[in-house]
């Protein structure tokens, strides 16, 4: 049956990610380079094929392991909102005037000079939107939302 084979392969891949690989010769003591990680996974779990610089697949691509380094796990820019910040916009879809925050403390959006119509979150945490009563919405890490009806007066994480 295909389902048990996929489940078994998924467990093998999970073990590859979670288990230490003692034979790994790292270029630095803490972080081996990506190709060394791929080589170690293929040695530990044969039958896989390297399909990208950071990817190994098994069973004709039905099970795929994608390795990420610390830089890939970090927040990424969202639209014109730079990595590590969150932004509010006067227009929907991250358009119009923009106010950028590089701190997570709750801040007023009044300097925007217009109602907040959208929010971008290029951080690795959740950004919350507030009105005069309390939290009216949130934006997950590395995403955005239209907020026209929220009545946002402050944002923070």
- Mean pLDDT score: 77
Report how far apart the termini are.
47 Å
Query: What is the strand arrangement across the widest sheet?
Result: 5-4-7-10
Helix content: 10-25%
Overall morphology: elongated
Strand content: 25-35%
How would you describe this protein?
The chain has 157 residues and is an alpha+beta fold. The chain folds into two domains: 72 residues, no CATH class; 71 residues, Sandwich (Gamma-B Crystallin, domain 1), CATH 2.60.20. It has three helices and eleven strands. The chain has a four-stranded antiparallel beta sheet, with no helix packed on it. A four-stranded antiparallel beta sheet has the order 6-11-8-9, with no helix packed on it. It has a three-stranded antiparallel beta sheet with strand order 1-2-3, covered by helices on one side. The N terminus is likely disordered.
Question: What are the salient characteristics of this protein?
Answer:
157 residues; alpha+beta; Gamma-B Crystallin, domain 1; 2 domains; 4-stranded antiparallel beta sheet; 20% helix
Q: What are the SSEs and their pairings?
A:
Layout: H1 2-18, H2 34-44, E1 49-52, E2 55-58, E3 63-66, H3 70-73, E4 86-91, E5 95-101, E6 107-108, E7 118-121, E8 127-130, E9 135-139, E10 143-146, E11 154-156
Antiparallel strand pairs: 1-2, 2-3, 4-5, 4-7, 6-11, 7-10, 8-9, 8-11
Summarize the structure.
By secondary structure, the protein is an alpha+beta fold. The chain is built from three helices and eleven strands, in the order ααβββαββββββββ. The longest helix has 17 residues.
């Amino acid at each position: 049956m295909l389902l048990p084979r996929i489940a078994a392969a998924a467990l093998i891949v999970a073990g590859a990610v979670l288990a230490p690989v003692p034979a790994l010769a790292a270029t630095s003591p803490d972080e081996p380079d990506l190709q060394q990680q791929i080589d170690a996974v293929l040695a530990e779990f044969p039958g896989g094929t390297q399909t990208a610089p950071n990817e190994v697949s098994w069973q004709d691509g039905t099970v795929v392991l994608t390795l990420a380094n610390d830089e890939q796990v970090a927040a990424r820019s969202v639209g014109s909102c730079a990595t590590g910040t969150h932004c509010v916009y006067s227009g929907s879809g991250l358009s119009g005037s923009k106010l950028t925050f590089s701190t997570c403390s709750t801040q007023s959006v009044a300097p925007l000079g217009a109602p907040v119509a959208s929010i971008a979150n290029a951080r690795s945490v959740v950004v919350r939107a507030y009105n005069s009563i309390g939290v009216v919405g949130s934006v997950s890490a590395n995403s955005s939302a239209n907020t026209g009806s929220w009545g946002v007066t402050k944002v923070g994480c």
